[in-house]
Input
Amino acid sequence: MNLHIPDVRILEVHPAPWSNLRSSCQPSSTLEERKDLGLPLLLHAIADAAHLGYNFLNVAGVEPLSYRGLPALCREAHRHGMLTSTITGSAALTASQLEWLRFSVDLLGVEIFGKGAGRISRRRSPRAVQTAEQRLAVVRNSGIPFAIVFPLTAASLAELEWAAEFAAVQGAAILQVRPSKKLSDEQMATAWMMVECLIELQRGKLAIHLDAVNRYNLPTEPADLASWRRDVEREARYLGEIVSPLVIEDDGTVTPLRYGFPRRFAFGNLRQERLAKMTERWIESQTGAFCQVYGTVLQKARTADRMFGDLHGMLSQEASGEIGMPVLG
Output
């Protein structure tokens, strides 16, 4: 979950997709064993990340609530003073399912797709359906603080005000608005202004975040990058000031900022090396090139034709060496 809160340094873990669906009573195949990153490796990585200054664990993936190792990951994060979060998408929710997560997940994100989203079907049980209100009632009754994640498209832009009112009435702590990359600059500007107004209207009742940047609110300056490089080369605990999220992909690859970030900037792989060790090498060999890419993106963002964009997407594009594509959008 991309939290826009000062001093939050996020470790994002993606468990292997197959392990989300396998029953604990089913034997694992040799292929599955090769794909499985393994809980012990992830627990070690959480401990290493905490020592590096990361203070928030986000468990991502297709349907993290189905991952049987979720409570163990959260408990390890709590043991090191980290907070925890995850997002559930289309799965139906039950009281018994959330009971075992009550003291594990500090913030549960629930995707809501708008007034016309209809009912959510439970897999393998076509008779079992839940409305958005019913799903949120289950979450609310569990006592787990929750956020509503609202995907923003051209079609749902008109429902943004409804989404804020709905989130407040349902008792959500946060409304997180995730704009589609297909939105035009004019539509993004409209969303930005609406969110600013809704923040004022819901002040004290609901926090609202829009997952986008514009050229006037970029999170850092080139001079800050130079200072960060000096700091992180002196003490690794400064890593998360710029590299947040730090992402553990489902094959064990550790990357900065987002899943699938170009491999030239990968830290390494947990199957081969502890996070603490690979981070030492990354800081020594990659911070200069990483700062150069970041600085280039900041400059392009300030001079681009488009006002709004996905900063991590822009960084990924620049790091991959793609040329001639729009920077913002």
